[in-house]
């Protein structure tokens, strides 16, 4: 009995994305150093599609602008989640059978 297995592979990946939105956030806590911990969610429904943006992070009080705004670049430990639900979001996901084959192989 003789068995042999060879494989050659090549690949590359690239990703680019832009997200621009204004989100109202609340101060949920003030940490020991005086940083403001903020959290906010914005949900928009258009043509049966719901898009949701959630933002969390910490900001120094001196980085809050005179109009009570903060750029995300001043947000420390920022977590920004962007998700969608609806017909278009469902079409982007692989089908059930494809997911099984991907899991098996």
- Side-by-side strand order of the widest sheet: 1-2-3-4
The overall strand count is 4
Through-space gap between termini: 24 Å
- How many H/I helices? 2
Key phrases:
105 residues, single chain, alpha+beta, four-stranded antiparallel β-sheet, 4 strands, elongated, 2 helices
Q: Could you walk me through the main structural features you see in this protein, from its secondary elements to its overall organization?
A:
- The chain is an alpha+beta fold and about 100 residues long.
- The chain has 2 helices and 4 strands, in the order ββββαα.
- It has helices spanning about 85-90, 95-105; strands spanning about 25-30, 35-45, 50-60, 75-85.
- It has a 4-stranded antiparallel beta sheet.
- Strand 2 (about 35-45) and strand 3 form a beta hairpin.
- The longest helix has 9 residues, at about 95-105.
- The protein is elongated.
- About 5% of the residues are buried.
What is this structure, in a nutshell?
Helix content is 14%, strand content 35%. It is α+β, with helices and mostly antiparallel strands and 105 residues long. The protein has a 4-stranded antiparallel β-sheet with strand order 1-2-3-4.
Element layout with pairings:
Blueprint: E1 26-30, E2 36-46, E3 49-59, E4 76-85, H1 87-92, H2 96-104
């Amino acid at each position: 009995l003789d068995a042999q297995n060879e494989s050659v592979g090549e690949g590359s990946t690239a990703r680019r994305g832009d997200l621009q939105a204004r989100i109202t956030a609340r101060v949920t806590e003030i940490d020991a150093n005086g940083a403001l911990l903020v959290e906010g969610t914005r949900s928009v429904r258009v043509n049966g599609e719901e898009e949701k943006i959630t933002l969390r992070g910490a900001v120094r009080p001196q980085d809050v602008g005179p109009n009570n705004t903060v750029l995300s670049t001043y947000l420390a430990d920022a977590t920004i989640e962007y998700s969608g639900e609806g017909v278009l979001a469902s079409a982007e996901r692989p089908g059930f059978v494809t997911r099984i084959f991907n899991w098996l192989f």
